[in-house]
Amino acid sequence: MSNAAMGQHEHLDAVKEMWEVLVDGEDHDDLQQHVLRWVDNACKQQINAGNYDSTVALSDLFDRFHRTFVLGENEPETGENIDITYVFPAQLTTKTASQLLFQHVIDKLVERDVLLYVYDKQRVRSRVAEVTRYFALLRQRFADQSGFEHAPSLTKMVKMDIQSREKPKWGDQGIDLGDKIREILQRASTGEPASEFGSVGRTDWREATNDALTLIYRLCKRRGMTGLASFQGRSLDELYRRAVTERNEERAHVITASTGGGKTEAFLFPILAYSLTANHDNIRVGGVDAVLAYPRKDLCDNQFERIVEYLYEIEQIIAADDELPYHSLPITVALQHGSASQSEISCPVDGCDGGMPTDEMVCDKDPAHKADFARSDKGATADIIVVTPDTLHRRLMDHRGYDQFWKHASPPKFVVLDEVHVYTNQYGMHVANVMRRFQAAMREVDPDQQPNLVASSATISNAEQFTEAIFGAPSAREITPRGKNEDIPWKETSKEFRKESEIEEIGWEYLVFIKATDPREVQVPQGEAKYKPRREWGPEDFEETNVTNLSSMIQVAFTMYHTILKQESDEGQLKNKILGFVDSIDSVKRLGDYIQDAESGRGVEGQELFTLRTPDAFLRDEDEPGTNPDCPKHQFRSNAASHERAVCEPLPPNKNLNPCPVYEAGECWWTMTDELDLEPMDVYLHKSGRTETPDGTRVEDDNWDLMVTTSALEVGFDHPGIIGTFQYRAPMNIPGFVQRKGRGGRDPDDQPISVVVLGSRPEDAFYFHHENLLSDPDERYLEINLDEENRFVRTEHLVSAIFDYLNVTDNETADEIYRRLDIEELDEKFTHEQDEIANWLRKAFPMVPEEQITAVIDEIGDYINLTQAPLTPASVGGGDIQEFWEAARFPRGTRQADLEESLDDLKFKRRLFQEIAAGNLDLENTSNK
């Protein structure tokens, strides 16, 4: 072996030795991530300055690497001292070892496909910067058009941003759940049992609290969650102790943490613990323990599934341990919204990939898998009820709500409003009034019981103020990871502070803002006309096409899917899905149709638009035909007669030495190398609670690559396979956008990308030039407002509260009034109990002026009188005179099927009259039917 070869071998051994030390110390990932972040930041600066061919010289990168990791200098940008443990082999100089280690890091990043060598292997570009380049140069291509030179441009400008991702510390960095439970039990033992436990001896009560928290500990241990986040521990302490002990102060709580930061467990574990306590040896018989309200049906289904999963695991723990005091699972859960019985959740049994239709709660793949503790029928009562605010609004007035809530001795102990930032303006005031009415009913059932009022959100800055407003509470306390709102400059953030902080950085996310070109008509030359001057074109030499903002979104959508990095998590979960948001149901359908057309090439193989950009240089064998018609395949190194004349090697071509017009025009997507990149994606649509393909076929499977939706999936849709999101046009509000981009990249190791396509409207231009409002919004832009002075919304709920009063105090009469429109009964109640009704309204709405309450009562009285007027004057016709309200209601005993048939008949007649009025029917030729 020559000395040179021996030296090279020693160097390889030295690199291996250094890398093993880094792997053992778990520092290899940190080293790679720091270098990648440097490249990303450098590319970002160039892109935002208008240079979309951004590159970083390896020499400059090595200089920074050497100074930071070898010489121990602080990071010039952050002031941070990065502590990485490694050992340089004694036989190498420090500079040589540093160079070898640096080159190994670069090779690892290239191997991971997050970094690309550019032009001559002396420069690099991050993959996200390369994809952003495609966005910047994007053209409108058509399946029947082979050339790109005359294809209209779709992008005016592009900006890129990079934001840190944070999460609360848990696991080894969290708190010990066993210690926290012992602390809670010790502190609870000094208090008095809550009012609903008043008949229980203190010994039995303490035993119940101990057994309940022990079972929660067992549940967490089974799920590998014994190291909870500190704020989750504080929430369990505060909310559970407040539930089981007598408390004097009235206070609501609001839980805030980052998206995916564990907010649900922060309020759900105290609820489960309370239910286990209340149902311990029948301490508390009957009644609802908790009402969990979610703003949308999809989110209700999602959270119902999560609760079923937790309850199933508790059931398994109880079944496997005879020493536990529970003979069976003592907790039930019910799903309550308009289409609850038509939903489906995943089977909770480990290893089963079946589904459970909510109307039966039996697995469709194995009937032995059942969830007898869960139900979804409208009249179902349960310990935990998952509901929308609109359904809760109806339950306050109807017989189902009476059976669920008000006929029991104790009202619900927990009322939760999750994703509370959704409740803005008028809708927020609607929900706030529902909360006031619900609390009034709870106080009527048991004036001594103090409910736990809990809000939750990841995107709200005025958390305590808003929570007080929406619950009508005198005060509110925020439970949040400490350190999140600390206003400390990064350079002053010492390692000691970061250890004390309850949050940690887990990586970063990319945001790309694309300003689409203005809508216009473009003439695209056809055939030989592309070689002629425009003045010589005849009518047959060109086709006219419209370039719109939607055109940009269509092309961006499939550019995004085919070029971003798809990866696999440590658990084997493929990260390859994109969730796209638009702000109208009509746009969901149109955008989904167009994307599917572009992807499928209308069913003609080789006509898919993404194939017009494939880098055939290194994807195709010599004898295999390429799919990119613009790729000069004969000039690639594998095909060129002389390597000296080769345009491309297996890295992007050098524009100075061997220019390639296709790549320079952005029509060769160099990152399209994975097998998934080369296959058409499957597009699904989600709207109005329904998932379907663009042709309208309803689907329940998970076989989508891109899902177009509205705000319906803005919250609570936590699919582990989502790695990217897009937003078409300016979002409706900033908190909503923060939630949308938070749908992607749920795992700590993910580096999700969010793309915003902004059109030609003034608000689009505003957000493009102030993109920081979306990428890193100031807290004042995350404040949520209520339309508290809206008299119209308030009046509607004052009227509804009268029916709440009737339902809670006299359900049998209320049922006749509410369901059968018995005005005589209403008149009787209203006449004799008007003072009680007025007092009810005052207690439910203490801030409402007395004159408004009086005005509402007077209006109801006038309405009652009007409905008792005769349907026709007494002098007209013969027979009995019928009052209006009697003619308007359906007879007792009317079946639901008969009612629907009557309604259908009325709808048919209405449509018939409309057609006649419009002159669309020939009455002479219309049959009697």
TrEMBL record:
User: What species was this sequence derived from?
Assistant: Haloarcula mannanilytica
- Where are the annotated coiled coils located? none
**Keywords from the named record:** ATP-binding, Nucleotide-binding
Q: Name one GO biological process term.
A: interstrand cross-link repair
Residue ranges constituting the Helicase C-terminal domain according to the UniProt record = 642-799
Q: Supply the name of the protein.
A: DEAD/DEAH box helicase
| Annotated InterPro entries | DEAD/DEAH_box_helicase_dom, Helicase_ATP-bd, Helicase_C-like, P-loop_NTPase
SMART domains recorded for this chain? DEXDc
Q: Which GO terms describe its molecular function?
A: 3'-5' DNA helicase activity; ATP binding; nucleic acid binding
Q: Which SUPFAM superfamilies match?
A: P-loop containing nucleoside triphosphate hydrolases
Asked if the keyword GTP-binding belongs to this entry, the reply reads no
